[in-house]
Amino acid sequence: MAAPKVAVVGAGVIGLSTALCIVEACPSCSVTVLSDQFSPNTTSDVAAGMLIPHTYPGTPIHVQKQWFKETFTYLFAISNSAEASEAGIHLVSGWQIFKSTPKEELPFWSDAVLGFRPMSEAELQKFPQYQFGQAFTTLKCDCPPYLLWLEKRLKAAGVQMYNRKVSDLWELHSEYDIVVNCTGIGAHQLVGDKKIFPVRGQVLKVYAPWVKNFIRDGDGLTYIYPGIHSVTLGGTREKESWSLSPNPGTTKDIFDRCCSLEPSLREAQDIKVKVGLRPSRQSVRLQREVLSQGGVKLPVVHNYGHGAGGFSVHRGTAKEAARLVGECIAALRGSSSGAKL
Ligand SMILES: Cc1cc2nc3c(=O)[nH]c(=O)nc-3n(C[C@H](O)[C@H](O)[C@H](O)COP(=O)(O)OP(=O)(O)OC[C@H]3O[C@@H](n4cnc5c(N)ncnc54)[C@H](O)[C@@H]3O)c2cc1C
Ligand SMILES: *[C@@H]1O[C@H](CO)[C@@H](O)[C@H](O)[C@H]1NC(C)=O
Ligand SMILES: *[C@@H]1O[C@H](CO)[C@@H](O)[C@H](O)[C@H]1NC(C)=O
């Protein structure tokens, strides 16, 4: 078999990082990214990009922890390199605060971030309505710069990127040997997966360069995440809402909630409002499938459904998807000439 032709559908953080892991694992593969939107027009561009895992109820915790650790290690190396600012990756310290002590005082990822410890009395004094808190240092991706950095790495590795809406994965069978499905919420329509649903998130991006530490309410709804150029203020979680237009009442509510945690934000300038639909599912769909029609087969690898925590696990899931692509290639090579698989 000649160099396998692989199409990755989707150009959010999952599609781009999966394409990169495939070329890294298989330099002889010909990899193409097909997507109807690229940065700055994806859900991934809206995200705050904080590395704080979300929990997927349908995926074993040790697997989620492994995905997070791989992602953290990968981005930590970038944060310690001369490329850190171009890639938009930096360390950020701060506090996660709770109105009452949570059931699980130690989240599963506590030893995967840096310096995780309970907050001191002195630190808690800043938040009179909160009783308990955790201090730690984690990484943050400034999302549009990181996506552009991934695109640049892909171009340097010879990956082609085309603007294309795929209405059915099968339409790619005559052009590609293997298709990887990284379409996020687009999978709802594309593969008819009704287990995936949108969780709408509205955030504000503001100019407030004096804010250096993150603050996150333990319920995950109100947060202040400083990036290199702007501070992300959140947020909302609206299940099954498909609306991409900002809601002005919600904007005011988010701003007020964040100002009550960090009053200096009243002086913030240049407030921009963004909305994204988190591609949510009980578990990330990371598996092989073989589509077939009339004896013709097309191996597919799915990697979608990362919900509220796609940045936190993207590198780990991309590596697993690339491993599954390797299995597809081995199966293609092992099959008798002519018939695929
Ligand atoms: C407000 C908000 C804040 C967030 N904050 C964080 C955070 O702090 N930390 C964190 O880890 N995660 C966060 N997330 C979650 C994170 O954004 C997602 O998990 C992640 O972006 C999902 O990436 P994706 O590549 O799967 O999806 P997307 O970025 O949506 O990419 C999907 C791609 O597929 C393409 N596509 C879809 N259908 C088709 C089709 N039929 N044909 C061709 N192309 C198609 C799209 O154009 C797009 O390029 C946040 C999300 C939101 C909304
Ligand atoms: C993003 O969307 C805008 C508005 O539809 C469009 O003009 C722009 O070309 C898009 N950018 C990319 C990179 O596709
Ligand atoms: C991607 O997977 C989703 C979920 O199974 C599915 O609905 C969609 O059709 C798939 N996309 C393609 C192009 O197969």
UniProtKB/TrEMBL annotation:
<keyword id="KW-0274">FAD</keyword>
<feature type="signal peptide">
    <location>
        <begin position="1"/>
        <end position="19"/>
    </location>
</feature>
<dbReference type="GO" id="GO:0005782">
    <property type="term" value="C:peroxisomal matrix"/>
</dbReference>
<protein>
    <recommendedName>
        <fullName>D-aspartate oxidase</fullName>
        <ecNumber>1.4.3.1</ecNumber>
    </recommendedName>
</protein>
<keyword id="KW-0285">Flavoprotein</keyword>
<feature type="binding site">
    <location>
        <position position="278"/>
    </location>
    <ligand>
        <name>D-dopa</name>
    </ligand>
</feature>
<dbReference type="GO" id="GO:0005829">
    <property type="term" value="C:cytosol"/>
</dbReference>
<feature type="binding site">
    <location>
        <position position="223"/>
    </location>
    <ligand>
        <name>D-dopa</name>
    </ligand>
</feature>
<dbReference type="GO" id="GO:0008445">
    <property type="term" value="F:D-aspartate oxidase activity"/>
</dbReference>
<feature type="binding site">
    <location>
        <position position="183"/>
    </location>
    <ligand>
        <name>FAD</name>
    </ligand>
</feature>
<comment type="similarity">
    <text>Belongs to the DAMOX/DASOX family.</text>
</comment>
<dbReference type="GO" id="GO:0071949">
    <property type="term" value="F:FAD binding"/>
</dbReference>
<keyword id="KW-0963">Cytoplasm</keyword>
<dbReference type="InterPro" id="IPR006181">
    <property type="entry name" value="D-amino_acid_oxidase_CS"/>
</dbReference>
<feature type="binding site">
    <location>
        <begin position="43"/>
        <end position="44"/>
    </location>
    <ligand>
        <name>FAD</name>
    </ligand>
</feature>
<dbReference type="GO" id="GO:0019478">
    <property type="term" value="P:D-amino acid catabolic process"/>
</dbReference>
<keyword id="KW-0732">Signal</keyword>
<dbReference type="Pfam" id="PF01266">
    <property type="entry name" value="DAO"/>
</dbReference>
<keyword id="KW-0576">Peroxisome</keyword>
<dbReference type="InterPro" id="IPR023209">
    <property type="entry name" value="DAO"/>
</dbReference>
<dbReference type="GO" id="GO:0006533">
    <property type="term" value="P:L-aspartate catabolic process"/>
</dbReference>
<comment type="function">
    <text>Selectively catalyzes the oxidative deamination of acidic amino acids. Suppresses the level of D-aspartate in the brain, an amino acid that can act as an agonist for glutamate receptors. Protects the organism from the toxicity of D-amino acids. May also function in the intestine.</text>
</comment>
<keyword id="KW-0560">Oxidoreductase</keyword>
<dbReference type="InterPro" id="IPR006076">
    <property type="entry name" value="FAD-dep_OxRdtase"/>
</dbReference>
<feature type="binding site">
    <location>
        <position position="166"/>
    </location>
    <ligand>
        <name>FAD</name>
    </ligand>
</feature>
<feature type="domain" description="FAD dependent oxidoreductase">
    <location>
        <begin position="5"/>
        <end position="324"/>
    </location>
</feature>
